[in-house]
Amino acid sequence: MVSMEALAEAMGELEEDTVVELLEQVMEEGGKQAQEAMDACQKGMDIVGSYFEEGEYFVSDLIFAGDLMSQAVGILKDALISGDGKEGPQTSLILCTVQNDLHDIGKNIVRSMLEAGGFHVIDLGIDVAPGTIVDKVKETDVKIVLLSGVLTLAINSMKATVEALKEAGLRDYCHVLIGGAPVSAEYCEVVGADAWAHNPQTTVQYCKEWAAVS
Ligand code: B12
């Protein structure tokens, strides 16, 4: 069994070899600890964030941490994602990281989970302006829009996106789900979204419910 404390610590200290070794051990042991390992990696990212705030780490360390986190997701992916994607509703939906935010590791995890759940994900990428999202909703006629954001200021961009959907007369026809580290029930109300989630599994549940009624 892999020690999750050791994994979180190695991630926080950016010890790449140890992180890879521990994650490979999780997979060699059948992947049962994959979700726990994912959570430990995220704890490690919080440690990285604290070091950054304290001035001990720099932007270059954040870049390295991002690469290491992507590598971790790559190793754990097969054990994290269940389902062959064929049983899902095959509904199309839009997913992106909102304007002014360049963080996409969490968004990419959500995308993988949704695809495994049978959804067709139209991924608009990062730093996506409200107008671009509105145009894509019009063009594709999707009924589900998922907004990701990791920076606190992403909340403003999410709110601007919901307002742009309203102005375009589209808000009543599509469900909006927001996710990412700063998101909460309170922010969900501020943004004017239908729901919020941190957990990709909950996201798939919401989307399945909405796909069934749209
Ligand atoms: C890696 C990293 C970066 C990398 C990102 C690389 C990449 N490709 O994404 C780079 C180097 C680009 C970066 C840049 C910056 N970063 Co940065 N970064 C991080 C770090 C260390 C990890 C983020 C991460 O990937 N976490 C792991 C993923 C898996 O977690 P997650 O995104 O939360 O996603 C999960 C859930 O939230 C959820 N989820 C995510 N999206 C969605 C969407 C939906 C719809 C749903 C339902 C769920 C969901 O599912 C995921 C899986 O569980 C964090 C620290 C931290 N504690 O997270 C800081 C952090 C986010 N960064 C921070 C800062 C300040 C910056 C910079 C401003 C630094 C600078 N001075 O330049 C820039 C901003 C650039 C910009 N405009 O966006 C701050 C943000 C502070 C704040 N509150 O706003 C943090 C918190 C660090 C800190 N403590 O100071 N960063």
From TrEMBL:
Give a yes or no for keyword Thylakoid in this entry.
Answer: no
What the entry lists under InterPro entries is as follows: Cbl-bd_cap, Cobalamin-bd, Cobalamin-bd_sf, Met_Synthase/Corrinoid, Meth_synthase_dom
- Is Metal-binding among this UniProt entry's keywords? yes
Q: Which UniProt keywords apply?
A: Cobalt, Metal-binding
- Annotated B12-binding domain ranges read 90-214
The UniProt entry, under SUPFAM superfamilies, shows: Cobalamin (vitamin B12)-binding domain (SSF52242), Methionine synthase domain (SSF47644)
The chain positions of domain B12-binding N-terminal read 1-88
Highest rank taxon of the organism:
Bacteria
Q: What is this protein called?
A: Cobalamin-dependent protein
Organism equals Blautia parvula
